[in-house]
């Protein structure tokens, strides 16, 4: 009789633990909050590099996520300006400016393996011996991990 009582208690504890883990897993952004990441703007022969200390990024209720959080931080710090449309397409970052009339757009490359595109059209860019591949995610959905490199480049279609 006591065995059934203990089994019910253990089952209840396990169930509550599982539910708590599931709930708190939803709050994990998967992004690092320590270390640095590097953002590179490639515009022809002009290269600008920004090294961002991720511990300085806002956390908690911040509206921006992924690469947008990095861009917000750099813009608030006065290092660059950017604009993004409602669909998440980067229109302008620093000196890079996409223009449909000129058939140009800002392409995103990343060193974060889980974000790279596996499509046949994906391209690779190497910066300081770090291989970055076309991102399969939009700017706000990208993973920002310690030591990652994200390259923004003006492309023509």
Task: Explain what the structure shows.
- A hairpin with a 2-residue loop joins strand 7 and strand 8.
- The N and C termini lie far apart (74 Å).
- 22% of the residues lie in helices and 31% in strands.
- It contains two helices and nine strands; from the N terminus they run H-E-E-H-E-E-E-E-E-E-E.
- The strands form two sheets. The protein has a six-stranded mixed β-sheet, with helices on one face. Strands 3-4-5 form a three-stranded antiparallel β-sheet, covered by helices on one side.
- The longest helix has 24 residues, at 2-25.
Annotation keywords:
single chain, 157 residues, three-stranded antiparallel β-sheet, six-stranded mixed β-sheet, 2 helices, alpha+beta
> Regarding quaternary structure, how should these chains be classified?
single chain
Mean pLDDT rating: 83
Total number of beta strands: 9
Strand content: 25-35%
Shape: globular
- Indicate the low-confidence ranges by residue numbers: 14-29
Total helices: the number is 2
Strand order of the largest sheet: 2-1-9-6-8-7
Q: Into which percent range does the helicity of residues fall?
A: 10-25%
Gyration radius over CA: 21 Å
Order of helices and strands: HEEHEEEEEEE
Largest sheet: number of strands, sense, barrel closure: 6 strands, mixed
The helix/strand class is: alpha+beta
Cα distance spanning the termini:
74 Å
